[in-house]
Amino acid sequence: MILIADSGSSKTDWRLIDSKGVSQYSCIGLNPDFVDSELVTKSVSEAFDKINLKSVTDVHFYGSGCSSESRNKIVKIGLAKCFINAQINIYHDLLGAARAACGKERGIAGILGTGSNCCLFDGKEVIQEFRSGGFVIGDEGGGVDIAKRIVKSFIEGRFDEELQDKFQKRYQTSVDEILENLYKKSQPNKYLASFSQFALHNKENTYISTLIEDSFHSYFKNQVMRYEEYQRIPLSLVGSIAFYYQEIFRSIASEYGVQIGIILEKPISGLTLYHTDLS
């Protein structure tokens, strides 16, 4: 039995590969910034309560927050208590995105979901990447970046009357309430992300489509174009923003001479193919 996991901060998607084929499971997000080893063990045991965990031989866990040895150890200890006979491998989610989207081919791989990132991939490992400043000063092109542009436009009164009315009806909020949530309450990134859906539902509006395009231009200029080969090898991506805005994204990519490869909403399907082939 081989287990593959793609874990974010809120949810973990699992795929179990055995002689019968592939089956899917899920549990809470297992980001080591927010969970401890005990909670990892508890959550996984509950998710696989009908599976003989001793039969699992390999675990490939790709996780948000799994970016250092100390963080990875939190997850590994928790998983080891569940899968006592398994070889447990912990990887960062950026490597998961690369293997899912690029397979075993050389390329530039990107994450374009709530946040954003990108790296150079040689078909097996990430060989070059640049640090991200996160949602405050980075994450260009991601959901929070688009949401920031939406909220900024609302606060500054840049929407026309129709958009202003749509925004008010959808969120039932005020400028003062938004500012309080952004500057006085916890997790402003999650609060901001809640506004990204407004762009998706109004992307046919010229103002909103321009706003989305500007965000994607920033992604190419600040992230993709830092790689010398960006016009010679394909850019493949995972993430909801890349997936649902791919028509706009592909159009922007063509302006920079960037070839788009595969776009996946979630990496788990691509990771399943990657590890099935390896097995």
Describe the structure concisely:
With 279 residues, this protein is of the alpha/beta class.
Provide an overview of this structure.
The chain is an alpha/beta fold and 279 residues long. Among the domains are: 2-100 and 268-278, Nucleotidyltransferase, domain 5 (2-Layer Sandwich), CATH 3.30.420; 137-213, Transcription Termination Factor Rho, Rna-binding Domain, Chain A, Domain 1 (Orthogonal Bundle). It is 45% helix and 21% strand. The chain contains 13 helices and 10 strands. The protein has helices at residues 37-47, 69-80, 93-102, 134-137, 143-155, 161-171, 175-183, 188-193, 196-201, 206-222, 240-244, 246-255, 268-278, and strands at residues 2-7, 11-18, 21-28, 58-63, 87-92, 107-112, 116-121, 126-129, 235-238, 260-264. The radius of gyration is 20 Å and the shape is globular. The model has no long low-confidence stretch (mean pLDDT 92).
